[in-house]
Design a protein that fits this description.
By secondary structure, the chain is α/β, with parallel strands linked by helices. Helix content is 46%, strand content 19%. It folds into two domains: 152 residues, ATPase, nucleotide binding domain (Nucleotidyltransferase, domain 5, 2-Layer Sandwich); 176 residues, Nucleotidyltransferase, domain 5, CATH 3.30.420. The mean pLDDT is 95. The structure holds 5'-O-[(R)-(carboxyoxy)(hydroxy)phosphoryl]adenosine (KG4) and zinc ion (ZN).
């Protein structure tokens, strides 16, 4: 039995979790506590790093205590502490990793410095027991990537955004249209009442040989459309949101379908290849349905872990810790590890 305490503080969620793995049986999420700072940042229309770091300092001890209490596991029964050490906002990373170092030192436990993206990359093995290799589409407020996941610590980025992250494009579009933060869910809500054919927004990178994403041109097109018809009625806002969302889904489908093709070529013997989606944008029903259709057509299994495990959380960090322990990849002395905002 391995039991790991995970800590996540890289953005605007203060989170702690205990995950257990007993032999060959499915892993158990014994607790998963997430405190969102959305209310603290809403007035500013985005995450303010200084406010985030202070909020983590105030909340983290209580969140860790709650995660231990919920799990029914005592600190001395924990096998290791795993904390996000990057990438992310450096203030939050310092708070999380230093707290983890202090707990690990005081309780005399091993410490694992985890890459936040590795947490997202391995989540589908926690939730669905997925076998390597598979493809990951990570679409969040900070990241837009396609990653080939071939083993613990064996990741290859096949595509990334050359400008805005997709969640950021949703958030900026919402802001331009006067919708509240965070923008993604509000754009989706407005889009449900809109006409997706009213505006012919660009599909950035569609058909391009380069595998990457781009969203800033789309954002500019939205701004120009909004300015051209201002002042906007509720129906105008809904139509822009619907047209934007359709353009995003279409552009995404083009980029992902390229990657599915490449995966087929590189792993021709993989009988049931899979695409995993992670990140907050994966909550979007139109995007999810588009990707699901694409996978069905291409003969890929579509894996969308439950939303609370594919947005930022500490269960994925604890799980990455377990995967590293099992793979013997815990040799680095994490007590010397300095948080890396870019990693
Ligand atoms: O993964 P996440 O919770 O946090 C990080 O960025 O790491 O992702 C948050 C992002 C935000 O940009 C938010 O606007 C977007 O995910 N998002 C959505 C939806 N729900 C959240 N975007 C589109 N449609 C949604 N329903
Ligand atoms: Zn994340």
């Amino acid at each position: 039995m391995i039991r790991v305490l995970g800590i996540e503080t890289s953005c605007d969620e203060t989170a702690a979790s205990v995950v257990a793995l007993d032999g060959a049986s499915a892993p158990d999420i014994l607790s998963n506590v997430v405190l969102s700072q959305i209310a603290e940042h809403a007035a500013f229309g985005g995450v303010v790093p200084e406010i985030a770091a202070r909020a983590h300092v105030e909340a983290l001890d209580g969140i860790v205590a709650a995660a231990l209490a919920d799990s029914g596991v005592k600190l001395d029964e924990i096998d290791a502490i795993a904390a996000t050490a990057g990438p992310g906002l450096v203030g939050g990373l310092i708070v999380g990793l230093m707290t983890a170092k202090a707990i690990a030192a005081a309780a005399d436990k091993p410490l694992l410095a985890i890459n936040h993206l590795e947490g997202h990359a391995l989540t589908a093995r926690l939730t669905d027991g997925l076998a390597f290799p598979y493809l990951l589409l990570l679409v969040s407020g900070g990241h837009t990537q396609i990653v080939r996941v071939a083993g613990v610590g064996d990741y290859q980025r096949w595509a990334t955004t050359i400008d805005d992250a997709l969640g950021e494009a949703f958030d900026k579009t919402a802001k331009m249209l006067g919708l509240p933060y965070p923008g993604g869910p509000n754009v989706e809500k407005a889009a449900a009442k809109g006409d997706p054919t009213r505006f012919a927004f660009p599909r950035p990178m569609k058909g391009a040989a380069q595998p990457d994403f781009s969203f800033s041109g789309l954002k500019t097109a939205v701004r120009q459309a909004a300015q051209a018809i201002a002042p906007l009625t509720d129906q105008d806002v809904a139509d822009i949101c619907a047209s934007f969302q359709t353009a995003v889904a279409d552009a995404l489908a083009d980029r992902v379908s390229r990657a599915l093709g490449r995966f087929r070529t590189e792993f021709p013997d993989q009988h049931e290849p899979a695409l995993v989606v992670a990140g907050g944008v994966a909550a979007n029903r139109v995007i999810k349905a588009t990707l699901e259709r694409l996978c069905t057509t291409a003969g890929f299994r579509f894996v969308a872990p439950p939303l609370k495990l594919c947005t930022d959380n500490a269960a994925m960090i604890a799980w990455a810790g377990i995967e590293r322990l099992r793979a013997g990849l815990d040799e680095e002395n994490a007590f010397d590890f300095v948080p890396r905002s870019r990693w």
